[in-house]
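Readers outside the structure-tokenisation community will struggle with the description of the input data as it stands. Showing the layout once, in full, would remove most of the difficulty. For illustration, here is how one protein appears when written out as sequence plus structure tokens:
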Amino acid sequence: MQVPHFSMKKASNMPTLKCMHVVFFFCKGHPYLGATPYNVFTCSCCGSSCTEYKCPYSTKDLTIEEGWEKTDFLEIDEKLRLKRSHKYHFKVKSQMGICGYKITFFVVWTCKGKPHIEVIVFDNVFWRDILSILIVFFKSYVQRVLLHFRPICYCFFCSKPCLEPEEFDDEEENSVQCQSCSLWCHWACTGSAVNLHAVSRQKCLVQQM
């Protein structure tokens, strides 16, 4: 079987390497998000990393080089790699963000030949974009159905969600509610044409635009 072979190959090059099976990771700061990597490698010199294994049945009797076109998640871009538009790519990048790790070993193996091993590096910009989408999904659907909390508020101008203070880093994502019409909008979306002090004077923000 190729999965243990991959682990033993790494261990032979890194004497302090440990391979652990982890049941579940909770996302720090967002405990309603979680991930379940197949394994976690820890090493005193290289830190920690995730692993993701794929064993496509359609190529079980072929080498990866012979059968990669039978899969929908591999592509050639100078060399064989995980397709960047595939859901597995989003899963791997999101998994690293939730676990707090910088590297994932993406392993594809069949019953014939050597496994394909690709090192995928964490992308902070990518993760921030995905995280905002996950927060919206949770608050818009999961939370409302399971917990019956208040619905998420959307900006009147851009239709994007108005996040809570702990959910963003950029002050431009801060939001304000009009006391006159009760609509929410991002500070950045109001622009210089709106006097934000109008909220306290009960003048409608929307009418000023």
